[in-house]
Structure formats: structure tokens, C-alpha cells
């Protein structure tokens, strides 16, 4: 920090009795001296004689006659500014406004504990100002560098967190695939009815863990600004029907009344259907979780406002509501509300709702419900859309074979076992490969109707194997390949399709979802084949 004492000239002062002629002589012999301080015998300053003003007075008509014999104390400026040498330049300048700064140019006295140290002039003011500016510039440069380092560290930390979550998600989904897969098989084949609730508990618990993994990944993507939107025409009426069908069984299980209403001025909007469902699922799931008696009412509205379609989701419940003290932080991540509250989860669902709403450009709010519980309301500015034209697909056999012969490629024995049993349940036959290299050899030596391809495998991964298969001669190059992976990132799915895969199915494997994915891939491949033949 520059001090004002660092910029003063240590010029010998003059006594109060020094004559004007002697002061003039000092200025003549010291051309660089711009001001002289007048100091008493004890070293205390009395005033300042400024060079230019005094020289002009002496040069005037009769100037020497008038001032040469006068003592310095009658020629000095008694109101000259005084500053402590230890005062920082910044504090010194802050003590003077714009008008008072002009007074410094005529000279100011610098003291230390009241004793004269030196005298400052316009030159010293400029020097002190330049030093202060240089210091601030260096501080700003250091701050910019620190901010750049902090930003780089934050980006690296966010990337590391996302990569960690992605790896952990993959590693957890792999054994979870075995748990849910076997549980689903048991549930479909179980003959002992008294055992069915136990199997259902396994399935429900596994699905809860799967939702927690998905929420954690979505929260990580949102924090890193990577929450993606895949927009297409969405039928809000169909959305309401899907939501009602999904949650009705849960409401009936708790003896709650679930009502899903619509009020639509614009039935179709351009939006990401998956994200809209995620919003409603989180809000309705929370409402059902905390409501013990009564019911939950969900209203989906759309109305035209200022050239856009305002879509409003309102979810009311008759539960205990949200305490006012907790309402301010209800949308923050990992906020589980009141400690020990029955059914409290990881505190990610509402935080993700806020991230999705803000990503779309909307808002989410909490208020009291007319039913006595909580009301969550989401407002989204969307564009109206034309109804999507559904293309009718003639139902045909997926392949000319009586049953599909499928190659299952996975390095995990449990995953291979689950996939094989599910395919057997679908009426298909299967063979196994433990890595991509074995898969490439298998499709060249045998005929398959479909490949279920894992992604992360030793020796050769699924993406590399797919690229090689697509370069093979003959029918093997056109073999339908369905990615069967625990990688839950949407960006990865785009890479798999770009590598030549025909579709993606997520682990843990769910029987109905896998069967649907197989049918979609085979229908797509068959449709593409018909188009090329035409």
C-alpha cells in the first residue's frame, strides 16, 4: 500500500523570519523546488510558499520593494493542507473532494507526529495517484487471475463430480440390473401368491434406488448447465392420461383420491415430453408420499398469452403442508424438510423441478392448498404446436424366423443370465459373448436376428464392436444392434446411434421396456429396408 510520505520532497524549510529576498534566492538556486515550507524552531509547520505565486508577486511592479524585506510568515499560505506521512495514498485522496484536490496542487505539508517531514506539490500528487492506480491495476490483474483459476477449478470439480456420478451410476446399475431382472422374472413366474408381496417389495425398492440415481445425475447435469431439452410436439391430453395411469395404482394403494384434470386452450405444445412428465411425476409423487388421508388433485392448463402458450401445472394435496420456516429452502438440493419426517427422501426431486422449470424459462412456486395441504405450481412459457401425425405401421412379424435368435454381449455373467432368461420368456433363443471381440467373431460365424450390445467391456467395448460389424461384408453389416447399457447420459445415447447402433435400452433391464425396445428396433430396421427397396 503506497504511503503519502513516500512521494514528498525532503526540502529544507525556511524559518518564519526568513526574508522574502532569501526565499526568492532559494527558488532561483533550486529550480526543481516548487514549494517551501515555513517551519518554527520546534519543527512544527506554519504554512507553504508556492513558487509560481510568489515569483509572480516578486516580478510585479514594485514587487521587490514590497516583499523582499517581509518575513516568510507574512508571505505564506497558512491554510495549506497537512497530511501524516504514514497515511495511505488512497485514504489521503479520499479525504478531499474534487474541488479540494485543486488546493493540493499549490503545495501541502507532510508531517510525522506533528513534525515537518517534507513538502508535496502537483508532481507528488501525480506520482501518488499513478502509484495508487498501478496498485489497483495489479490488484485487479491478481483478482482476474484468481477468478480464472477458481473458474477452472470449479469447472474441473464439476466435471469430476459428473464423471464420478456417471461411473457410480454405471457401477450401481450393473448389480441392480441383476436384482431387478431376477425379481421381474420371479414376479411373472411366481405361483405362490403369499410370496408375491415380498417380490414386489424387492422390485419397488430397486425402482426407488433407480430413481435416486437418475435424480442425482439430473441434478449434476443441471448444476453443470448440461440439462438437455429434446423438443417435439406434445399432446397435453395424452400427457395427463399417462400421468393418471402411472399414479392411480399408488393412490389406490394408499386409499387416496387422485384426480387429474385438464383445461386446454392449446392442446399441443412444443416441449420436451420427458421433462414435462418428470415435473409432474416429482410433484404428484411427493404429494402422494406425504398425504395420508384425502387426496391429490393435479390440473394441467394451457392458455394463450402475448403470443406464447402459458402451460400451468398445479398439484394440490390434503397433506400436512410445508412449514413456513421450511418453505424458503424447499427447492434447494438435499433439502429434506423436517428431520425425521415420514417418507422424506434425498431432497432432490423439488430441486430438479426448479432446475427444469428454469431451464425451460418458467417458474415454480409453493403456496397453501385449498385442500389444506401444499400447492405446487409450475408456469412454463411454451409455443403452441401442430398435432403430430402418427404414421400407421402395418403389424408384421419382426423377422421371417419363428423366433428371434439373439446374441447377448455383456462382460457381466449376471447380466447375461438375466438377458437370456428374459429372451427365453419372450420366446427367443440366445447365445452369449463376453466382449466386443467375441461378438465380432460370432456374427461372422453364425446368423443372428438381433444383437443386445453392452457398452463398457474389456478387450473391445460395444461402440468399437458396432463400428467393426458395420464394415463387415454381407448381411452381418445390417444386423440390428440394440445398446443395452447402464450409462444413463443422453449425450452417450447420441454417440451410440452415431456409431451405428439402432437403439438404446437402459439397465436395469425391465422386461416390458426391453421387449418394446426390441420391437421398435426391428420395426425401424424393417421399415428402412422397405424404403431402400422402393
Task: Write up what this structure looks like.
- 47% of the residues lie in helices and 19% in strands.
- It has 534 residues and is of the alpha/beta class.
- The strands form four sheets. Strands 6, 7, 8, 9, 10, 11 and 12 form a seven-stranded mixed sheet that branches. It has a five-stranded parallel sheet with strand order 14-13-15-16-17, with helices on both faces.
- α7 packs across α13.
- It is elongated, with a radius of gyration of 41 Å.
Task: Work out the helicity level.
Answer: 40-55%
**Biggest sheet layout:** 7 strands, mixed
Supply Rg.
41 Å
Q: What structural class is derived from the secondary structure elements?
A: alpha/beta
Q: Nutshell version of this structure?
A:
The protein has 534 residues and is an alpha/beta fold.
Structure characteristics:
534 residues; seven-stranded mixed beta sheet; 17 helices; 47% helix; elongated
Produce the secondary structure layout:
Elements: H1 20-29, E1 35-39, E2 45-50, H2 51-59, H3 63-67, H4 72-75, E3 82-84, H5 89-94, H6 98-104, E4 108-112, E5 115-120, H7 122-189, H8 196-223, E6 232-235, H9 236-253, E7 257-264, E8 268-271, H10 273-290, E9 295-305, E10 308-317, H11 324-327, H12 349-360, E11 363-368, E12 374-384, E13 405-409, H13 413-425, E14 429-433, H14 436-445, E15 450-453, H15 462-469, E16 481-485, H16 490-498, E17 503-506, H17 511-533
Parallel strand pairs: 3-4, 7-9, 13-14, 13-15, 15-16, 16-17
Antiparallel strand pairs: 1-2, 4-5, 6-8, 8-12, 9-10, 10-12, 11-12
Helix pairs in contact: 7-8, 7-13, 8-12, 9-10, 10-12, 14-15
Amino acid at each position: 500500500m503506497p504511503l503519502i510520505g513516500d512521494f514528498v520532497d525532503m526540502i529544507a524549510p525556511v524559518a518564519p523570519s526568513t526574508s522574502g529576498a532569501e526565499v526568492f534566492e532559494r527558488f532561483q538556486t533550486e529550480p526543481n523546488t516548487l514549494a517551501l515550507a515555513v517551519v518554527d524552531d520546534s519543527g512544527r509547520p506554519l504554512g507553504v510558499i508556492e513558487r509560481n505565486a510568489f515569483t509572480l508577486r516578486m516580478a510585479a511592479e514594485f514587487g521587490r520593494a514590497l516583499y523582499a524585506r517581509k518575513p516568510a510568515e507574512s508571505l505564506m499560505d497558512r491554510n495549506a493542507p497537512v497530511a501524516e506521512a504514514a497515511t495511505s495514498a488512497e485514504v489521503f485522496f479520499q479525504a478531499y473532494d474534487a474541488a479540494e484536490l485543486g488546493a493540493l496542487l499549490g503545495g501541502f505539508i507532510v508531517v510525522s507526529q506533528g513534525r515537518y517531514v517534507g513538502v508535496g506539490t502537483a508532481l507528488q500528487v501525480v506520482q501518488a495517484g499513478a502509484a495508487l492506480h498501478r496498485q489497483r491495476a495489479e490488484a485487479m490483474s491478481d483478482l482476474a487471475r484468481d477468478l480464472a483459476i477458481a473458474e477452472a477449478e470449479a469447472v474441473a470439480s464439476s466435471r469430476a463430480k459428473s464423471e464420478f456420478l456417471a461411473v457410480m451410476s454405471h457401477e450401481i446399475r450393473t448389480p441392480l440390473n441383476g436384482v431387478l431382472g431376477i425379481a421381474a422374472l420371479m414376479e411373472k413366474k411366481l405361483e405362490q401368491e403369499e410370496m408375491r408381496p415380498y417380490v414386489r417389495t424387492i422390485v419397488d425398492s430397486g425402482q426407488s434406488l433407480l430413481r435416486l440415481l437418475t435424480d442425482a445425475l439430473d441434478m449434476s447435469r443441471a448444476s453443470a448447465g448440461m440439462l438437455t431439452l429434446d423438443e417435439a410436439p406434445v399432446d397435453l391430453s395424452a400427457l395427463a392420461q399417462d400421468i393418471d395411469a402411472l399414479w392411480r395404482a399408488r393412490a389406490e394403494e394408499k386409499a387416496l383420491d387422485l384426480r387429474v384434470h385438464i383445461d386446454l386452450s392449446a392442446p399441443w405444445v412444443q416441449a420436451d415430453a420427458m421433462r414435462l412428465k418428470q415435473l409432474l411425476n416429482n410433484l404428484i409423487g411427493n404429494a402422494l408420499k406425504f398425504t395420508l388421508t384425502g387426496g391429490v388433485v393435479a390440473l394441467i392448463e394451457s392458455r394463450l398469452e402475448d403470443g406464447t402458450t402459458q402451460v400451468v401445472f398445479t398439484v394440490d394435496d390434503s397433506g400436512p403442508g410445508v412449514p413456513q420456516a421450511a418453505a424458503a429452502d424447499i427447492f434447494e438440493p438435499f433439502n429434506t424438510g423436517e428431520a425425521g419426517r415420514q417418507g422424506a427422501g434425498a431432497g432432490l426431486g423439488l430441486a430438479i423441478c426448479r432446475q427444469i422449470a428454469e431451464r425451460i424459462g418458467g417458474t415454480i412456486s409453493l403456496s397453501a392448498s385449498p385442500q389444506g395441504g401444499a400447492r405446487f405450481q409450475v408456469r412454463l412459457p411454451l409455443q403452441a404446436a401442430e398435432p403430430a401425425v402418427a404414421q400407421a405401421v402395418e403389424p408384421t412379424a419382426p423377422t421371417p424366423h419363428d423366433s428371434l435368435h439373439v446374441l447377448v454381449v455383456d462382460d457381466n455373467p449376471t447380466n447375461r443370465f438375466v438377458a437370456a432368461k428374459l429372451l427365453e420368456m419372450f420366446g427367443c433363443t440366445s447365445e452369449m459373448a463376453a466382449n466386443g471381440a467375441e461378438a465380432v467373431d460370432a456374427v461372422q460365424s453364425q446368423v443372428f436376428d438381433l444383437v443386445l450390445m453392452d457398452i463398457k467391456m474389456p478387450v473391445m467395448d460395444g461402440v468399437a464392436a458396432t463400428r467393426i460389424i458395420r464394415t463387415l461384408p454381407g448381411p452381418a453389416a445390417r444386423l440390428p444392434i440394440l445398446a443395452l447399457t447402464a450409462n444413463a447420459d443422453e449425450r452417450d445415447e447420441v454417440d451410440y446411434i452415431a456409431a451405428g447402433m439402432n437403439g438404446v435400452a437402459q439397465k436395469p433391464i425391465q422386461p416390458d421396456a426391453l421387449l418394446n425396445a426390441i420391437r421398435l428396433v426391428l420395426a425401424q430396421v424393417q421399415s428402412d429396408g422397405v424404403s431402400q427397396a422402393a
